[in-house]
Amino acid sequence: MPLSLDPSQIYELIKNKLPVGFSIVDVEGIIVDFNTTAEKITGYSRNEVIGKSHYEILHGTSDTQACPLLHFSIPHRKEAVATESTITRKNGDSAVLTVTSFPLIDEQGTFLGGVELFRDVTAMKKLERERKNILSMFAHDMKNPVLTSGGLISRLLSGKTGKLTLKQQEYLILMQDNLHRVENLIMEFLDFSRIEAKEYKPIIEYFDLKKEIQEIIESLRFEADKKNISIDFEQTQPETGPVMLHADPKMLRRVMNNLLDNALKYTNANGTVRIELSDRKKSIQVDVEDNGTGIPEQHLPHIFDAFFRVSQDSTGSGLGLAIVKTIIEAHGGRIWVNSSENAGTSFHFTLPK
Fold first, then answer.
1. Which of 99, 120, 141 is the C-terminal boundary of a domain?
2. Terminal alpha carbon distance of the chain
């Protein structure tokens, strides 16, 4: 039997049963509708917000550039944009919202306003911060015992405490190698925590990125030669001369080391790794390609996630590519990956000049 409700009644029922905040704004950003979940999240009643600007209520600022509808959706013709904002509820408490916005555009292409759906993720964000803080403190507390143990093993191997048998030396070397691996994992995690918390900021210098890349390639020649892998470097646009950049050379060296190290690790013997550097008008692009094992399609969306590892047999921390992405984005750039299983992988990143 068909519904006996008219469209306006159906709209009201759906709107107020939605488990997320729902708001409609006009072309000026003025709120014209607000559902009951939105009232619970913000603390404001529908009557209090209708006719008022949505910027401070939903984006926590009076800056119109913070609105994804006006800043992203309309200029770039994006159908939907997901953002995160911190607002102040009516009672004065802060709340973290994830906001999905999409524009309302008629058949003639006229912008009529937009819809914003939002969810309160304050509790989840608090748990996430606490988890990161606990892990960071745990890693920091582990660092000193690991370094101290490594120093004692080095002292034993040097013979300063007496002569060792060959078997004792063999065992101590194995222990030393394992401690070095643990030390590297701890340092990588601490670096990731500092970068993610914005405590590790780029120290900007004017330097030749081409020269840095060439030096990194030379430092990895020995590892490449062990598998008979050729490393090809090509510069385009222009084809010669330095490629000068305002950036943190130490951070970008880490990016290139990680990408090239992964390329060598996952490229079979007699394979090829290719690096291309392009100097463009407004940006510089670096491409690192290999003809190695590739990445399964189901793993590609997670490849830059912290602690994600494609292979469970990997001895790494799963933080390398997460650090790479964070560094590139800290410089205002972006990074992406293309890969096909058993056909190779290519990482690409751009940096603004």
1. 120
2. 64
Cα(198)–Cα(326) distance, integer angstroms: 10
> In degrees, to the nearest 5, what angle opens at C-alpha 346 toward C-alphas 344 and 347?
145
Within-domain flag for 36: yes
Q: Which two tokens stand for residue 5?
A: 């409700």
**pLDDT band at 256, cuts 50/70/90?**
very high
- How far is residue 217's CA from residue 232's CA, in Å, rounded to a whole number? 9
Of 175, 196, 217, which marks where a domain is finished?
196
216 and 323 housed in the same domain: yes
* Residue 84 and residue 59 in contact, taking contact as beta carbons nearer than 8 Å: no
Sequence letter at residue 144 = N
156 belongs to a structural domain: yes
138-151 pLDDT tens trace: 777 777 888 888 88
Q: What are phi and psi of 86, to 5 degrees?
A: -110, 125
pLDDT, tens only, 50-86: 998 888 787 777 766 667 666 555 554 557 777 777 8
Query: Can you give the residue range of the structural domain that contains 60?
Result: 7-120
Total domain count for the chain?
3
| Best CA proximity match to 209, nearest among 236, 254, 247, 160 | 247
266 and 223 housed in the same domain: yes
Which pTM value belongs to this model? 0.56
CA distance 75 to 343: 38
Question: β-strand 230-236 against 272-279: which pairing, if any?
Answer: parallel
- Is the same domain home to 254 and 179? no
